[in-house]
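User: Let's play a game. I give you a shape written as tokens, and you guess the letters that built it. Ready? Here's round one.
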């Protein structure tokens, strides 16, 4: 079995379930040691058990991504143990309440933006020195079609994904002349996840692709030499 990511250190947010867990498993299967980040310890342990059962390696890191100090401490711990970070998958996000723009609750919107946009910026700020120490750093951010194509009642979530895309792509532009650090945007499309079920109640999950399909596509992308700014939509 080929292991194109052998000896690489990866970090995946939202790795306790869904696309994050599937991506972590796929990266581990490709040879990476995966740092599993999420708030839910139980879910992280399930992901780690699956990785180890398949012969991979991982470390769980339970933390609240809305706490910038916790992100900084994690970066310090990673620097002390591995001295670099090769792969960063920004997946954790919250949907919030679907509502007309005038009815968006300001407090909920602030919390949504903190996790969906503020936390990714804090991750990049904390891990940028470690990404720069990698011989081939790769960053992938998970978006949604509503980030580029506005949809009624999706203004809160869609605007957060539009901001995330701009943030990540700006970082990629900044890094182009400073080494082999490349960024990509991944739109998973319709996938059988808890967030999808919340957004589309009554939809038959059997009509959607499995998170494993998305996780495998992300791992393959990160093992490749895509051009920075690459956009991928996962079909299937």
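Assistant: Ready! My guess for every position:
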């Amino acid at each position: 079995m080929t292991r194109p990511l052998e000896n690489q250190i990866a970090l995946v947010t939202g790795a306790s379930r869904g696309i994050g867990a599937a991506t972590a498993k796929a990266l581990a299967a490709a040879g990476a040691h995966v740092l599993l980040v999420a708030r839910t310890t139980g879910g992280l342990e399930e992901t780690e058990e699956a990785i180890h059962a398949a012969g991979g390696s991982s470390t769980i890191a339970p933390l609240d991504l809305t706490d910038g100090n916790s992100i900084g401490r994690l970066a310090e711990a990673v620097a002390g143990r591995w001295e670099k970070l090769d792969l960063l998958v920004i997946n954790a996000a919250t949907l919030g309440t679907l509502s007309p723009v005038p009815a968006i609750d300001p407090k909920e919107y602030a919390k949504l933006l903190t996790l969906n946009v503020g936390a990714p910026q804090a991750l990049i700020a904390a891990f940028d020195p470690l990404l720069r120490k990698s011989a081939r750093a790769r960053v992938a951010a998970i978006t949604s079609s509503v980030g580029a194509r506005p949809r009624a009642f999706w203004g809160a979530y869609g605007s957060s994904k539009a901001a995330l895309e701009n943030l990540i792509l700006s970082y990629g532009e900044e890094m182009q002349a400073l080494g082999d650090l490349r960024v990509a945007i991944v739109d998973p499309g319709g996938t059988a996840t808890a967030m999808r079920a919340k957004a589309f109640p009554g939809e038959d999950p059997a009509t959607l692709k499995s998170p494993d399909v998305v996780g495998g596509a992300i791992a393959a992308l990160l093992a490749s030499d895509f051009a920075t700014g690459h956009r991928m939509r996962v079909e299937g």
